[in-house]
Amino acid sequence: MSEKQLGKKVDRCLADGAIKLGTGLGLGIVFSVLFFKRHTWPISFGSGAGLGMAYANCQNDLRSHYLLHKSEKEQ
Amino acid sequence: MLRACLRGANATARNNCRRNPLTSVQHCRHYTAGETSGATKVVAAGLLTVSSGIGGTILYAKWDHKFRAAVEKNVPYSDLLFSLALGPSSQEGLPIKKQVKLAIVVRCVFVTFLYCYGVCFENEVAFCVYMFALEECKECHDHKDTPVTAVVHPNTESPVAMEPLKERPVEEVAARLAQQDQEEQDILASVSASLEESLASSAKTTLQAIGAQEAALQAITQHTHKLKEAMEAEKSAQWKDLEAALANRTCAMNDASTALLKANETLGSLKSVIDKSKGLNIAAVHPLVLAAEENLHNMIVDLDKVVTKVQSAESEAKIVSQYSELVNEAKQQFQREVSSLTPEIQANWKGLTGKLSADDLNALIAHAHRRIDQLNRELAEQRVREQIHIDAALEQQKLEDQKALEKAVNTTLQHVKEEARLEQERKLGELREVMEAEMRTQLRRQAAAHTDHVQDVLKVQEHELRAEAEQVLSSKMLEQETRYRQLNQEQLDNFTLDMNTAYARLKGMEEAIDSHVVAEEEARKAHQLWLSVEALNYTLKTTDSDLPTIPLKSAAEAVRDSCHDNDFALALASALPEESLHRGVYSEASLRARFNSLRSLARRVALIDESHNSLYQYFLSYLQAALLFEDEQKAPPTQLSREDLDPFKLLSYASYCLEHGDLELAAKLVNQLRGETRRVVEDWLTEARLTLETRQVVSLLSAYANAVGLGTTQAP
């Protein structure tokens, strides 16, 4: 069902976002605690990176239909 | 040679002229005159030549018509000149010799003129012409006696226009010939009758005249005889006889003259009749005419002879009468003398011998002596003048003889001429007969030839006609045969046609029966098909919401089975989409519900397409969908414009269509969506398509089944 694809993608996006955010946050916290003397910037950096990555992934996923992949180009 | 001499003379003259111009002015008068005014001389010479040429031509043309004709033919406008100078050309031909002679004369004149001219003006050209003309003259003189025979008298040889001769028909010819013969016979009869009549009358009169003339002759001779006797004898009775004889003679002469006149008259009439009959110009008359002419001639000759005889007798008688008159005169003179001497004595002195006295006798004797002397003197004189008298008499006699001779010569000449003419006529008649006979033989020959020719022509014609007739016969036979064959063929054709029609009808009936059977079979089949299609249709309806129908495979199988010999139905049955067969199709209601659910989703991704597909765009699209309000359902226009291609509008149109049961239009409208919206509704569109396809095929099949069923149902 094509109408359900979007929902699935959005779900994935959100899931991925959540994961990445969480992971970024976690890593940020870890790094902040471990290496950067409890500054907040690694946390925000990590969460931002995580969010960014999630954003990019989401966008890429949503865009994936419109992009010509290398294999298709070669074909 | 003459030319050379002349040239030499000229050269020497010129030389002389050059050598001593002063001394020999007189000699060179002509030459110097020629040398000093050269141009004018040339012009004058030229003019003179031309005019002389023209004059000579005209003169010669006047004499020689052939020359004139030749010139007129060859030189244009010369005929005008000639007509002006000589008048129109007449075609009279002079006798050739005269012509040639005159031509020669003219030529010679021309030649002499040229000679003079040449000599005067030292013109070598003139000399040449002169020489040429001289030679020509020589030729002409040589040929004078053998004239050119090409003189044409054109007018005399104009062809006689023969009237076209038509052949008269035989009967007409025969009739004409018969008529001609009859006419000839009649004329001949009449002419011969008239000739005979006139001949008879003229013969009679001639004989009478001859008899009269002879009688006259007799009378004359008698009279002269009597006269001579009377002269000699001197008897009184003889005088009476003489007078009687004279009276007889005069009577006879009168009779003779009248008879002669009458004879001449009749002869003249005979001549006229002969001339008239000659004028008729019929062949058969000629011998008669000839004979009549001969008779006439003979009669004339006899008459003339007799007349000459009578005339000679008359002349003799005249002489004798003259003599007697002389004697009588002498006697009378003597009587007178005697009576003058002796008046008493009576006339008849011969019987008075006794009665005379001596004086009277002496006187008489003296008178007689005197008379004798006188007579002697006269005699002497006569003797002297004898010669003269004789000459005179001879002359007179000569004259008379000459006259008589002339007359006799004339008459004999006439007779001879007449005889010659008659001879000629006779010969002509004989010749004519001979010619006639020859012509007859020739005509007979020609007739024979003609009959032969006619026979040949008839044979040929017979051949031709026979061939023609045979050809006609054969063509007619052929025609008849073809017609017979045609009729036969027609009959056969008709029979065949009837047979064929009967057979065809039989066949038709059989086919009708078969077709009935077939039609029933077909009807059964159609029925079956219809049933199966109805089953198929029903399966379409067996659907719950959101669940497709049962697979249509079995129904399609059933349909296929019921129409395995029908290509159309088979094609249609096989046109059912695979999905519908295996999975089944969604109903319209389910599709409608689904659409309603995915409408909001489609609205939410309205802005997303190939170029705009970032997350931000997604956010914007969501915002748009949240803020934009459109009609739930809107009726779609008949024609979509650019504004109508907006997704929101399209979705509202499609909702409207779906609500009103027009899945097709809704699918069409949804098909216009682009971009992400389109991706979202793709599945729905596919399903809608499937449903539509299946429904179309099923409706076609049912329509077909209905049609077939309707077609096979028999009307009562």
Percent range of helical residues of chain B:
over 70%
Radius of gyration of chain B equals 80 Å
Largest interface summary: A-B, 13 and 20 residues
Structural category of chain B: mainly alpha
The percent of residues in helical segments of chain A reads over 70%
Task: Characterise this structure.
Chain A: Keywords: Membrane, Mitochondrion, Mitochondrion inner membrane, Transmembrane, Transmembrane helix. Chain A: It is found in: Mitochondrion inner membrane. Chain A: Its main location: mitochondrion. The complex is a heterodimer of chains A (75) and B (716). Chain A has 75 residues and is mainly α. Chain A has one domain. Chain A has helices at residues 2-34, 41-63, 70-74. The two termini of chain A are 27 Å apart. With 716 residues, chain B is an all-alpha fold. In chain B, 81% of the residues lie in helices and 0% in strands. Chain B starts with a helix and ends with a helix.
Short description:
Chain A contains 3 helices and no strands. Chain A is mainly alpha-helical.
List its salient traits.
heterodimer, A: 75 residues, mainly alpha, B: 716 residues, elongated, Mic10 (chain A), mitochondrion inner membrane (chain A), transmembrane helix (chain A), transmembrane (chain A)
List strands and helices in order, with pairings.
The complex is a heterodimer of chains A (75) and B (716).
Chain A: H1 2-34, H2 41-63, H3 70-74
Helix pairs in contact in A: 1-2
Chain B: H1 2-19, H2 29-36, H3 38-63, H4 65-74, H5 78-86, H6 96-121, H7 124-142, H8 170-233, H9 236-280, H10 285-341, H11 358-384, H12 386-541, H13 553-562, H14 567-575, H15 578-582, H16 588-604, H17 615-627, H18 647-659, H19 663-671, H20 676-712
Helix pairs in contact in B: 3-4, 3-6, 6-7, 8-9, 8-10, 9-10, 10-12, 11-12, 12-13, 12-20, 13-14, 14-20, 16-18, 16-20, 18-19, 19-20
